[in-house]
Amino acid sequence: QVQLVESGGGLVQPGGSLRLSCAASTNIFMFNVMAWYRQTPGKQRELVAAAPRVGSRHYADSVKGRFTISRDPAKNTVSLQMNSLKPEDTAVYLCKAERGIGTTTEDYWGQGTQVTVSS
Questions:
Q1: Fewest beta carbons within 10 Å, which of 32, 56, 85, 96?
Q2: Cα Rg for the chain, rounded, in angstroms?
Q3: Residue 32's pLDDT band (cuts 50, 70, 90)
């Protein structure tokens, strides 16, 4: 059973930075894509950033130039460096890993970590 555990959330002032980390219980090379989503009450879960095993990273327009996603195969982690944080970045941030199995995919999710941007 694959487990993903997020860490690094917290309270930060506008303009500040946080680094989120997602640790996988298995070798992350098996995942086609690792990504960060965020969710706020009453809103649909939003893709923030995605890092495929091969290919370019993808970012939501709202975070381009401020957030950076990175995979670390040596540590089996995926991180999200968040700079110039804004109050609208406040959300629960969730890590997702996607594994391809034949013609289907399996998705694994972490429990999430709260990020609050407020003065």
A1: 56
A2: 14
A3: very high
pLDDT in tens, 57-79: 999 999 999 999 999 999 999 99
CA distance 36 to 93: 7
User: 103 in helix, strand or coil?
Assistant: coil
Q: Are 85 and 19 in contact (CB under 8 A)?
A: no
Quick one: DSSP state of residue 53?
S
Distance CA 55, CA 70 (A): 12
Q: What is the pLDDT of residue 4?
A: 98
Give the type of residue at 23: A
Residue 53, pLDDT score: 92
CA distance 50 to 58: 5
